[in-house]
Amino acid sequence: METRAQEFVTEAREHLSAVEQILLSLESSRAGTPAAADERERLDHSLRLVHSLKGDAGFLGFSAIRTLANAMETVLEAWRDSQIPHSAACIETLLVARDRLAALLDDLEHSRTAELGEILGQLEAIAHLPSETRPHDQVRELEWDVNLHHLAAEHSGRLVACLAQLERDGVISHARVELPPHDLTASLPQGAIRLHARQKASSPLPASMAAPRESAISLSIDLSQWGVPGTTPQMSPSTTTGALPQAPAPSSLAARLALLASLGRFDQPQLAGVTADLRSLPAGVILHGTLHTSLTEEQVAQRLGLPSSRVPTTVSLPAPVAAQPSVVKSPAAAIAAPTDADKTTTLRVHVELLDRLMTLIGELTLVRNQSLLMFGQEDGRPRPILQRLNGVTSELQATVLRTRMQPVGNLFGKFPRVVRDLGRQLGKQVEVTLVGRDVELDKTILEQLSDPLTHLVRNSVDHGIELPEQRTAQGKAPTGQITLTARHGDGQVHIEIRDDGRGINPQAVRAKALSLKLKTEAELDRMSQRELLGLILLPGFSTAGQVTDVSGRGVGMDVVKTNLESLEGTLTMDSQQGVGTTMMLRVPLTLAIIPCLMIVVEGDRYAVPQREVVEVVCLHPDMPGRVEQAFDTEVYRLRDRLLPIVRLGEVLNRPQPFSDETKAEILRTHGSGGSDPASIQKTVQYIVVVRHEGKPYGLLVDEVRGTEEIVVKPMQSTMKRVKIFSGATILGDGCVALIANVAGIVEHARVSFVAEPVVAPVTIVRDAAEAHRLLLFEHGPQEQFALPLLQIRRIETFETQHIQRVGAHEYVAVEGVATRILRLDQLLQVSPCHDSPVMHLVLAKFAREPVGLLISRIVDSDSLAIDLQPCTEQGPGVLGAAMVRDRLTLFLDMHYLLEQLLGPGAADAEDDIGFHDTAAQQARVLLIDDTPFFREAVGRYLTAAGMVVTTAVDGQDGLKQVAAGEFELIVCDLEMPVLDGWGFAQQVRQRGFAGPLLALSSLSKAQHESRAKACGFDQYEEKLNPDRLVRTVSRMLAGE
Amino acid sequence: MTDSTSLYCTFRSAGHWFGAPIEDVKEVTTETACTRIPHAPPEVAGYVNMRGHIFLALDLRRLLGFDVSRSSDNRLVLFKPTVGPSFGILVDEIGDIASVAADEIEEFSAAAAPLAAGEPIRRVDLIDKVCRCPAELLLILQPKKFLRVVEQAMASTS
Known about the structure:
The structure holds two protein chains of two kinds.
Chain A: H1 2-29, H2 36-60, H3 63-80, H4 88-106, H5 108-111, H6 117-127, E1 139-147, H7 148-153, H8 159-169, E2 172-178, E3 192-200, E4 215-222, H9 253-263, E5 265-272, E6 286-293, H10 297-304, H11 331-345, H12 351-378, H13 383-403, E7 405-407, H14 409-412, H15 415-426, E8 430-435, E9 440-442, H16 443-464, H17 468-473, E10 480-489, E11 492-499, H18 506-515, H19 521-525, H20 529-534, H21 541-545, H22 557-566, E12 570-576, E13 580-588, E14 593-601, E15 604-609, E16 613-619, E17 627-630, E18 633-638, E19 641-647, H23 648-653, H24 660-670, E20 685-692, E21 695-701, E22 703-711, E23 725-730, E24 736-740, H25 742-748, E25 773-778, E26 784-788, E27 792-799, E28 804-806, E29 809-814, E30 817-822, H26 824-827, E31 838-844, E32 851-855, E33 857-863, E34 878-884, E35 887-892, H27 894-902, E36 924-928, H28 932-944, E37 948-952, H29 955-964, E38 969-972, H30 981-990, E39 997-1001, H31 1005-1015, E40 1019-1022, H32 1026-1037
Parallel strand pairs in A: 8-10, 15-24, 19-21, 26-35, 30-32, 36-37, 36-38, 38-39, 39-40
Antiparallel strand pairs in A: 1-3, 2-3, 4-6, 5-6, 7-9, 10-11, 11-13, 12-13, 14-15, 14-22, 16-20, 17-18, 18-19, 20-21, 23-24, 25-26, 25-33, 27-31, 28-29, 29-30, 31-32, 34-35
Chain B: E1 5-13, E2 16-21, E3 25-29, E4 44-50, E5 53-59, H1 60-64, E6 75-79, E7 87-91, E8 93-101, E9 105-107, E10 127-132, E11 137-141, H2 146-157
Parallel strand pairs in B: 2-11, 5-7
Antiparallel strand pairs in B: 1-2, 1-8, 3-6, 4-5, 6-7, 9-10, 10-11
């Protein structure tokens, strides 16, 4: 009984959805060209559906459902038999009744006691409406498309006289004429006019009215295969199976079109598949359209020289729905037809059974693999058999997967109703077009797609489509169009919702984002239109969006996005103001089988879903490129971007989310300490670059085994707490492998470092070795500061309660050493730092006594080339300012700050050779360095020491400067583009420069000094200590 | 229960003779390739594949607090509890089906633990009953409590 009821519900739901579609199609056909016979057919079909529903309900004892279905049947019957007129009220009531039925089916248990009085009353009223005015059997509601010119010819050109005549004859009553807006004083409108009237069935029609009723025939004609009219012989059954034998002469196209026009009115002509010019009529050009004619389809086909209309290749549906094997006159019939056909060819199967089948096939696959192993070694003969087993198993698996697939049409089908209801409610006219209903998707995905898609469609109607008068004012058709398209692409299904509404105003989005403080003005200024639109998808944007309706969209868009992401899908959008909005969804075909990258960590295999993988990088000990450290995180330089590295082995071995101590420990274990080659990895390793929330991360793994299509099994419920895995799978050899959950892994590793895309005007230094890594941080809430990493020993985290005061000075113990605290707001005109319980201390590298710069937040560390602008208002403590990641960033002069804090000579002084050595005074010095930051900083120190500094950006530029002017000393960087320091030294010496040449580089002196000297440098200094540099330069100038 | 006998599926681990109600046992197998689950508590041996289904396998030695260094666990007993998911336990040796008369069964108490032959049992709460069979004590386990132990272990770590 239980299963019988369940079956009944499933079937009844299908019936009701078909009934709904028919009712909607009847409603829309009202506005188009109705064909009573066709309408009758559709009504008949819905009647059958409701009838069978009623029967089943009665059999199972669901009395309320039976009663309601019966009432609906009565109305449908009366309508079909033309006892009641085709009216909007009738359709509306039937739709409401249908909804009630659907609700009853949802809650079968309480259906028997449901209160149906009101709806039953309404149906009753509809069914008996005309009986009060006229006896049923004598009246028919008729509609004609009449040619008034033709009609009026008999009545001296006066419409009124014509109608009066008809009334007097007593055959027609309640005549109504629908006229297009037209000035009737001048003349009658051209073309067909619709005349509605009631007619006594027995009365003869006047000759002028009795014109044969036109029907609408949908045509799709392949022009290249369209036979020449008159020359084509009558179709014989043998030729109806395909295209016509002979190709027509191109010149006859016009003649054929003229013939077509002579048969009736040809509506909405469309040419599809035109790829070449039409002079030579290419193959595959299809002419679509609707022909209004009094002829039958057979006649039309014959006259046009088309193959018989039963041939699906030439006559099919206007919409790009799968071609039906018969001529389909209207969309409603298209819906009805497959349902009939389905009854004989389909079978209802429980999903559980399919899942079971899937599991069994998995098992079969394992047996196959084992057999392959066993037999393969012993005997050559069973091989062919095994190969067949192999093939059959694979095919079986693919077939069973397909059983889970359902056409998108099942989901799309509900939207015409959704749009219609919402459109009415809002007073909007909207038409829905569905394309690609036969595209198939996994059942699970289809079900979960329903809510997001409904939301988007409702949004389109609600916010996208304008009111008819607004549309007309903008020169658009009063009826808005919403198109839902599904298609395959890149192994995914693309679903598109396009409307021709008002679009989204990016400026309104911008204003709202600003008012919600989601983004700063500067950030917004940099955003493209598309990026601005993307803001709608931010959480937070939506919740506030319910209050105001500035942007037009955005209510719960983040929810839609999240839903889609849970399906492994994506959402993008495109909108043009005034033209419309398109939402593009991409979802995988199935969740059950996903392509994965198989990796090995510490001997165990894991699967990483392919969609999360961006690329794989091989780390070979003999090749350049290795994992480096940046504060508490390891990074890899991947094409000028710093990619945070997560060691998967460490993640797997540490069940606790990483703390700062854990991260420090990992760094110590794997730390290379910079350039020490001894600690560099000896074996080949791989970095699997994955994407999480749009940002790349690198998973360091031992081995990459290639890709595999795996069947996903969920984690056992007890193991759901293990966040680093999303499921498990059985591999070909029967072993279980876990599926990595990238989000969980990244969160577990607590990667704080984020490699953000760097935006202009900050460009990335091409030469990685010469990249000047900067620490970006905040002190007060307002400013962002930068310091070169070279000047930083390390960063300590400490608790502010441990700060001790001695007079005006503050100290904190760092590893037992009293460290003086440097507060930027005491030395510079910057906002003060608000102490929080835990803060960071940037320990300066070259200070006479331990000094720590107090900072409130580490923003990031990155390698950047900076366009440094002088920043005079800040005075000497700031070298300059530059835009870094859209923020004005002050570049600190650590040397100056230390001097201010500790007094002159604060930087580690070895001896007392002063800055103002006489030899240095007015000395002309050429400074060659490709990094603006260092050019500025070093230039400043040298200028401060009294020298006249000229700068050059690379060796080549340097040679030019040397040729142009005289220099007493040259300070040159080593690693530079165009011409490097070594090359420069050789060339400048060859050209006869005899003065002192100083190499200044961030490369280690120990390793590179000898080479530099061989090239012609006199001295070598590391880019560390400005004081030392100035002293060395002074000494060299003095001839020491 | 008074005049009937109960059937128990028996197995050995760490010198003890254990049993579980036969209606709770789905199957026993000697083929166990366990896949370690990182971040799972030590009681979890990993995932095993049993004819296309993936089951969680627990390590009985760790569950009961035995010495794991002497482990020779390679047999699997798969349970199908009346509620909750199926899971397996790794044991040393699969035994026979034991038929025990009702009057031989008594409630297990911690005091009875030392009477058993093998290593000392720490998690006595996992043992339901004890059967005084002629040859040896048969300890009846409560499989339904096993997953809860794992859940608690997971909750305490996260």
